[in-house]
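User: ok so my PI wants both of these folded by tonight, can you help

Assistant: No problem, let's get them done. Here's the first:
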Amino acid sequence: MAFEDKGKLPTKPHHVIMEDRSRLSVTGVEDVISFDETEIITRTGQGNLIIRGSGLHIGKLTLDSGEVSIDGTVQELCYEELSPTGGFFARLFG
């Protein structure tokens, strides 16, 4: 009998594919938090993925399947760690 952890929801597989720094395909995206021509912030099961560059444009967005395609000049990809659950005091004290 396999043990199942009921506390965690399964995350979608997460992949990042970059082509010539001008096209980016990301899977496992749960939400797009914010976007403009210089920065796009997405939420994935691996943490927030921040894409920085110039002339960034979301060409395709399908949150049902968790896919995002981005065109433009990609200069930086950065992940923010997943924040611990709980409020401010739970993070501060424990």
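One down. Here's the second:
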Amino acid sequence: MIESDILILGKGPAGIQAAIYAKRANISPIVIGKDYGMCVKARTVENFYGTETINGTELVKNGITQAENLGIEVVSTEVVSVSFEEEGYLVKTLDKTYLAKAFLFASGAHRNVARIRNINKYEGKGVSYCAVCDAFFYKNKTVAVLGHSDYAANEVSELVEICEKVYVLTNGEIINTQFDERAIIIEDKVLEVTGDTKVESVKFENHELEVSGIFVALGTASSTDLAQKIGVAIERDRILVNESMETNIPGLYAAGDCTPGYQQIAKAIGDGCVAGMNMAQYVRKLKRNKR
């Protein structure tokens, strides 16, 4: 297990800026991110302070280089789960486990949408986005996980311990991970979710599968997906924070596009600045109390 004062999910402007402020405050951060985030879609940035024009990817790369030159570790991998333990925040990636005193969600607001007929109709009525939160309600029942990657595999690992039968619905996508051998994989295209007042079945082109619940785990887990699993307050797919960028859970912060407000690079950097300084203060206080 790798221990750190602060762990930051997201190596875009918000996450890197927070890491820089924490590091300069003599607090040790680790930044984890799978990619550069939404900034890569900005071919030209012309409204950023002190810069007439710059490519979005170049801007992010410059920030990462700046962080690494300060001695900040920036790891390129995917986070599949975040949980709160007595010792701090336990964060699992594809191949490692981290423990941090404070944690920052800063990986943007992207959320994969399931384009399946009627699936949104059953949200809260059999369609869930959190195995850790809702698996208990499906004890000894049959459920399905919609997904084909590591995020889906992590959800399956939670469900197979509680549910009678777990199906993996790849919806025609190619599997790029290893699923628990107890799960049953169906690679057919999903057409529709059906049921009276709650989920009762999933329809494919040539057959139908009876299930009590569907857990959506498409692509990579976003900040909102992971935050929801540990009880963070969320509204309209955004993580709610106070003026210190802290969530309703002590030591857990969020910054950038995953929080309410304008989705702009300038705001993300401002959020990261505030989060970084306040996380440093939070960690210092924890260390003083343990002396």
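The CA atoms of residues 69 and 144 lie 45 Å apart. The radius of gyration is 20 Å. Good luck tonight!
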